Backbone:
């Protein structure tokens, strides 16, 4: 893909914020660094969060895009004010997607699913104590006509067969997209280094396994990207397709992370993308933030995070821009 394609474009018409809101989690998965689950960083006050949310909403309006907030952690549903936060964004025409382990009560999911445009549940074979509860949460999300629902099965090589077994069970009971998610060393701390070791058979299964299509009328997902090739042909794939097919090296390309999207770390620092190859562009605690309006040149060998992969990328050998000038706009 990298030698013959010239562009990977996101056509979802949103301005995306991928926000690591808190690093407290009720699970302690071996493949997640303690930075992701220890609770070592205090979550920001509700007032600070709402102030930054309002900045993004106003910026999105000016650019003609819809604000799209994707919250992860940690386990964001544990946050005391989280229900109020997603309700506020929903009432201000923003979209909310969350990444969750699904452990919150069925009562919580029934009360809050109306505010969720997307949910990505993560199945952690070593930590989930109640598979029936996970399936029941999945059924609530399946039943919501406005909620795009996806499940990542975190594929621990040591329990690969058990993960496959649950994936098959879930597929038989719930209509949703399902991904057998390969694991990467260095996840959550210091940058991704390499993928865990899988057999050829396991690799093939992760590439080909899918869930059952949802029967919902939903907008284009933010994870859908269009690839344009040198010969003029085009193909639409998901960011997961790029990941499992090892099409995640964009070194030398123009990346529009920071222009179309931003990420927020546990400490409140704002960056273009999770690769963090460029310095922070601000903090949620700042009075104003200078948002770039030109792309950056990719210098990162592995683009592993879905939020980063979703940003438009253009082959620098075909399309040039003057990166000696950094132009920003204040929000």
Residues:
């Amino acid at each position: 893909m990298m030698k013959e394609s010239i562009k990977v474009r996101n056509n979802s018409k949103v301005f995306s914020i991928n926000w690591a809101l808190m690093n407290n989690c009720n699970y302690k998965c071996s493949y997640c660094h303690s930075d992701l689950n220890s609770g070592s960083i205090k979550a920001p006050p509700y007032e600070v969060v709402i102030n930054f949310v309002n900045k993004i909403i106003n910026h999105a309006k000016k650019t003609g895009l819809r604000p799209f907030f994707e919250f992860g952690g940690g386990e964001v549903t544990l946050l005391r004010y989280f229900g109020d936060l997603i309700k506020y964004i929903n009432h201000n025409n923003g979209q909310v997607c969350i990444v969750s382990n699904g452990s919150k009560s069925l009562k919580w999911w029934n009360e809050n699913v109306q505010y969720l445009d997307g949910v990505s549940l993560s199945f952690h074979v070593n930590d989930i104590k109640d598979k029936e509860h996970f399936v029941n949460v999945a059924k609530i999300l399946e039943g919501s006509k406005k909620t795009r629902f996806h499940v990542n099965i975190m594929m621990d090589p040591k329990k690969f067969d058990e993960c496959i077994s649950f994936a098959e069970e879930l597929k038989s009971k719930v209509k949703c997209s399902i991904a057998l998610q390969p694991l990467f060393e260095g996840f959550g701390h210091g940058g991704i280094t390499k993928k865990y070791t899988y057999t050829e058979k396991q690799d093939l299964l992760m590439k080909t396994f899918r869930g059952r299509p949802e029967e919902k009328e939903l907008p284009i997902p933010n994870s859908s990207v269009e690839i344009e090739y040198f010969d003029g042909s085009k193909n639409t794939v998901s960011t997961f397709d790029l990941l499992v097919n090892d099409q995640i090296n964009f070194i030398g390309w123009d990346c529009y992370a920071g222009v179309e999207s931003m990420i927020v770390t546990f400490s409140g620092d704002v960056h273009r993308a999770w690769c963090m190859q460029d310095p922070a562009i601000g903090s949620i605690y700042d009075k104003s933030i200078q948002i770039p309006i030109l792309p950056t040149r990719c210098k990162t060998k592995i683009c592993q995070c879905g939020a980063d992969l979703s940003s438009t990328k253009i082959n620098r050998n075909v399309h040039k821009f003057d990166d000696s000038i950094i132009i920003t706009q204040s929000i």
Summary: The radius of gyration is 19 Å. Residues 13-219+258-287 form a domain with the TIM Barrel fold (CATH 3.20.20.70).
